[in-house]
Amino acid sequence: MTGGSDFLQLDPAGIPRGRRTDWLADRLRAATGEALPVGARLPATRELAAELGFARGTVTEAYQRLIEEGLLVTNRGGGTSVAARSAPAAEIDATTAAGATGPGRGTGPDSDPDVIDLISGVPDLSAFPRTAWLRAEQAVLERADSRQLGYAPAQGVPELRAELAGWLARSRGVTTSPDRIVITGGVTGALSLLYQVLGSNGGPVVAIEDPGAEGNRRILQHWGCRTVPVPVDADGLDVEALERTDSDAVVLTPAHHYPTGVVLSADRRRRLVSWAADRDALIIEDDYDAEYRYDRAPVRAMQPLAPERIGYASSLSKTLAPALRLGWLAAPERLVGPIVERRWALDLGAPALPQLVLTELLRSGALARHLRSMRTRHRGRRDALVAALTERFPGCRVTGIAAGIYLVVLFDDDVDDQEFARRAADHGVQVQPLSTHRIRPGRPGLVISYANQSPQRLRTAVGRLAAAGRRPTTIGRSDSGSQAARLPERRRQ
């Protein structure tokens, strides 16, 4: 295809300006599975833009999305052509909580294209490195022997555990070895295994951050743990408050607290380790989005301070895609045996082939390259969201912007954030009330996930939020290590 787009029947009539990029990307994506064979050339961006009456940047962005998905490829001097066929997109429900879903629920693209999902807490799934994954998968299948195609150890394939030990040491400072790593079904799988081990000695008491990840709290309750909320302030978990509880363990997000974005201070890290030693307790470190840092230096994992007191969990859900259901747990030595036994009894362990593909991505450096690209991409989306909030909600306070794939908009105490979220839904935007993640009363607000939406889509979403009603106001303080966005005043509606 080098002479126009007539046979694609691209009729942009009636497409709103703010939806043109999404519309064009969707139509081209569908065409690569139907009308466009592999190798077919697309029109130059300038030519297609003129034909459709679009800005050239709109066409360029649509092409770029498909290039990042591995469906198109740019050829030096030869334009843009089809690299692979697309699979039909599945309709998936939005998540019920950031980072964790309810039974029968999932996360993914909006099933209704007019509804903008700012809840799901996933990375930019359109940028999944399909070409690199397929290349690694082909390499694995070409050389896989009978051992690798047989039953893998319940603990995880040895090759992946060896690569992860080195990767975690380099990227997060984690002190572990392959024999202490257990491959899990994401962070949720790691937490479930740990909770079951804790529960083998009776009903454990587990301290959790307040506010904290609502999904983690639900998993705890499912396994019969009694939870104790511990407040979080500008320095992270209040360890003094933790010391007044009778907890057997604590679950926390020290490098980037969910949802406020604060970092657990060095003094509190040391005090937390002392608490665990005095009580013979377990610290469970959920390092859920460690790879994304924008305005501050990377924050090291807490695990190296006490490898025998801390279970460290992370996954691919925020770096590649939740659909892979691959995570890992670096466990204290005394817990490895009981954890592996439970993993074996559950399902004999994670599927071996995806583990071997991840091994190849780590060995080749493809995963590191992908993460560098994603940091740049996510930062651009964060900047677009903050700029839109600045324009539409003058005077509000935005926190948690220095890292991760979400931010928090704080409200006045008299604002009902759940009612605001309901009104936003009526305007076609799904947002998550901050109160969803609280056990005790506290400052209301919104948790907004931005990574899986284009900058234009984010600007549209903020416009809809502005139409939904009452505004946030200037409150709160910035997260540790970065300055929160301060936004000018707006007249109350």
From TrEMBL:
SUPFAM superfamilies the record matches: PLP-dependent transferases, Winged helix' DNA-binding domain
Record flagged with keyword DNA-binding: yes
Keywords: Aminotransferase, DNA-binding, Pyridoxal phosphate, Transcription, Transcription regulation, Transferase
Domain (HTH gntR-type) ranges: 18-85
Protein name (Swiss-Prot/TrEMBL): GntR family transcriptional regulator / MocR family aminotransferase
UniProt keyword annotation of Acetylation present: no
GO molecular function, one term: transaminase activity
Pfam families, per the entry: Aminotran_1_2, GntR
Organism: Microlunatus soli
Chain residue ranges for the region called Disordered: 94-113, 468-493
Coiled-coil stretches: none
Annotated signal sequence range: none
Family: In the C-terminal section; belongs to the class-I pyridoxal-phosphate-dependent aminotransferase family.
